[in-house]
Amino acid sequence: MENLRIGLGQLNTKDNIENSFKEIEKQIEECTSKEAQLVIFPEMSTYLSETSTMEIAQTIDGEIISHFKELAVKHKIYIHNGSFVEKSKTNGKSYNTSMLINPKGEIETIYRKIHLFDIELNKELSYRESDRYKRGDSIINHSSPLGDFGFSICYDLRFPELYRELTFRGAKLIFVPAAFTMFTGKDHWESLLRARAIENQVYIVAPNQIGEHPDNKLCYGNSMVIDPWGKIIARASDKVGVIVADIDWDYLEDVRQKLPSLKNRIDLKDMELQ
Asked: Is 43 in the active site?
């Protein structure tokens, strides 16, 4: 398999979809000028606000995904939309949904966020995604001419069993589009990303939102790409913009051969409890 050049868009998405797409296309143009074959955006790349979230939800055949398809065709590139608010048919809640779109404008993969961010850090700072979203119920791997991919979104990062399952199903690169908060990001973002890369010997690709958003949400930025040894090979500066990185599949196989921890793993379910 040929090596892959990817671009990551670091965004400061607010509550205006039209303005979001202006920045998204600008970033696609910059990444394609650097010969990226795939561009990945953060969670909620087109609209990030708790206000009116359900009102702006769209189906997969709505304007948001149609626009991403048009951009993929126009720029002859694969696009990972990060995620958007997908309208559900039941109970008034929506899904937090990622898609991989090919240069023909075809949707190749759909992933709906499994782990919902329900926390209360203090009286002033709490999030309850389950009030507005339904959780996805499928683990998603995808094999394409570009590589063998696994899908996750933001809070999924804290659940290593998902990444191990994606790896054993064949993933060699796992996407982590995020809107990781400043409060948790400054202490946990890099550590968790590097841990998922090291323990699974995969590339971790993590575009993050940055800066202040509506409803006083503050995101950490620091979008990054981490190789299977746990080394950060690309990292965004503290502003809106793009980074580009090369994915070396031969290097991944070399890491797995020299340190065969995946093959050495023991299934603890078969062990007796003492």
From this structure: yes
Residues whose CB is less than 8 angstroms from the CB of residue 173 and which lie 6 or more positions away in sequence, other chains included? 4, 147, 148, 149, 150, 202, 203, 204, 205, 247
**3-state SS, residue 203:** strand
> pLDDT tens digit string along 71-120?
999 999 999 999 999 999 877 799 999 999 999 999 999 999 999 988 77
DSSP per residue, 56-85? T-B-TTSHHHHHHHHHHHHHT-EEE---EE
Q: How far apart are CA 240 and CA 221, in angstroms?
A: 9
**113: annotated active-site residue:** yes
Q: In terms of CATH, what superfamily is 4-265?
A: Carbon-nitrogen hydrolase (3.60.110.10)
Is residue 63 flagged as an active site residue? no
* Gyration radius (Cα) of the chain, Å: 18
Considering the candidates 23, 134, 154, 172, report the single residue annotated as catalytic: 154
> What are the two backbone dihedrals, phi and then psi, of residue 196, each rounded to the nearest 5 degrees?
-65, -35
Of 60-64, 90-94, 116-120, 123-127, minimum mean pLDDT range: 123-127
6 forms bridges with which residues in the sheet? 38, 245
Active-site pick, 69, 113, 134, 217: 113
Q: How far apart are CA 34 and CA 30, in angstroms?
A: 7
pLDDT tens digits, 6-56: 999 999 999 999 999 999 999 999 999 999 999 999 999 999 987 777 789
Which of 23, 31, 43, 129 is the catalytic position? 43
